[in-house]
């Protein structure tokens, strides 16, 4: 343990926790570990490939004298003869713990995989994590270098909890970001505009639908980076609701109740529906300039974003029937839909009868309702953010 002083430990831990926030930063802590153990390579195998599936690739990050050093990369790894499989989790071992020097020297795995990369001495540990399964950590030296010692194994075991903690944090952040991205895409597919604002009403972010609404200036717009309504009376109410969203007390379930209002549009179109919901504070730090509320905007006259393919599968419609249903859901009359689709009115009526039969509805208004309330919009391609 005397090989690592306080400054080295501080530097390594800082690099590890920086890497938890950004996958591109893993090279730094791994390079520090490579120097610490006088290694030629340090590798973290995040996912082993499926040896039964040639298209399945593993995922790893490795540092050393190689292409893509320090980058998280997919890799083919068809060597299922490795002697390092099925080892007890969280136990540091070397090749000498598993076999004699002669057995290791003559093993097909060393000859065909390790020798071309001057990998001879191996110190390894399979790291168990609560949510990511087993991650494999490998430190290697060339044949001309000395083997790993008991002190090396002890130091590796000492650092193991920090590695596990950092990897688990990274996994939790990845999962949270993935879920957040899925929810954001779902909202976009439902044609709901979202605007992220701080406590002063400054816009921090917006999705593609919000951008379209704000750029049109029809009801809502950006003035000096702040969200404003077109008419002074609406703007006063908007400012008041934003302020109240930040100042209101939590309801019975512990969350602040969202505020809502209607925004008049100068074009004369149906008013925009607006809901303002505060983002719960972690209460750990003062969040000046941080996201404080999300503004949901729904344009009642916006076109349906229903996916043709998903709608066909949901309702058992033909392509022609699906196209007509979507036009009707967008507010067109049967005659207008027929004209938009360049089909005869009688053909449109025949399609509508078939649609009624397949969906079990009897009126056009019911058809529009089930389309707008269906999950068809969630099956469309991703919206550009």
UniProtKB/TrEMBL annotation:
| This protein's UniProt keywords | DNA-binding
Q: Does the keyword DNA-binding apply?
A: yes
HTH luxR-type domain location is 314-371
Q: Per its UniProt record, what SMART domains does this chain match?
A: HTH_LUXR (SM00421)
Molecular function (GO) terms listed?
Answer: DNA binding
Q: Does the keyword Hydrolase apply?
A: no
Protein name, UniProt field: DNA-binding transcriptional regulator, CsgD family
